[in-house]
Amino acid sequence: MSQQFDEMPETAINSSGIARVIPCKKLAVFDSLKWISLAINDFKKAPVISLTYGAAFTLIPWIIFYLIETTGWYMIIFPAMVCFMLLGPYLAAGLYDVSWQFEKKHKPSLRHSLKAMSRNAVNEWAFGLLLMVLMLFWLRIASLIHALYPSHMEYSLANLWPFLIMGTIVGAVLTVIVFFITAFTQPILMERRVDLATAVLTSMNAVWLNKRAMFFWASIIVFSVFLGFVTFFFAFLFIMPIIGYASWHGYIDTIEVKRERGYE
Predict the structure, then answer these.
(1) Which residues cross the membrane (predicted)?
(2) What is the span of the domain harbouring residue 190?
């Protein structure tokens, strides 16, 4: 269970002065297992809404795969990913609202969760654009790494190995950066209606001060996405709503508030 810091540690993030940083609590390493447990309960209490959002997350990769198979045009991945980066935060906001309604002892509805997507629309769109810029940055780096491969060399594992290592390292670094930025940003934007800079810096600060706990949570997310891929995205029907609900419970457990939260 999370607990208050005896004294809030000072970091380069919360002392930067760029924007307000909302204080966070100290997490135990395996706190995310509790978030998953609460998320499963939310799924059970709202199965129709959960499966509706799960179907959306499942259909998106299916549509991308179908377009690639039928057109043979792999460049369709790029515009499809851009659309997903812009729509993803809105779908996540709908899931957060379901858990939030349970916390407030209300009965969630699909209509209410859809309306929640526009609670902080400007900053949520800005968040989607930020994710898109990061994705474009990664695609540019990937193309540069590919361009470094000599055209006269044979495509073999021995020749590709240095480039695979380079791509993996760069991808891992960018993934860590994205996780720092996104871990708690979306629920902060939705509930508190703060500006994007405040939400992003608060998320980064919370992850930095709880590195081991957040690494474990990130590992769960990575494994869940992997499970979705190996099941041809069928598992996303259940996994994505649970990850969404768990993210909300993680936000409640981590980011400090002035009033008591109905956590359980």
Answers:
(1) 48-68, 74-96, 125-149, 161-184, 214-243
(2) 31-145+170-254
79 within some domain: yes
Number of domains in the chain: 1
Task: Give the pTM.
Answer: 0.87
For 41-63, how does the pLDDT look when each residue is reduced to its tens digit (9 = 90+)?
999 999 999 999 999 999 988 88
Cα pseudo-dihedral 79, 81, 82, 84, rounded to 10: 130
Residue 118's closest CA among 143, 99, 93, 144?
93
Residues in the chain: 264
Residue 2 lies in a domain: no
Residue corresponding to tokens 């991945």: 77
Distance CA 104, CA 100 (A): 6
Q: Is 247 inside any structural domain?
A: yes
Q: Report which secondary-structure segment, H or E, holds 44.
A: helix 31-45
Contact 203, 247 (CB under 8 A): no
Q: Are 80 and 67 in contact (CB under 8 A)?
A: yes
Segment 127-165, tens digit of pLDDT = 888 888 887 787 788 778 777 766 666 666 666 777 778
Dist. CA 176–CA 143, nearest whole Å:
20
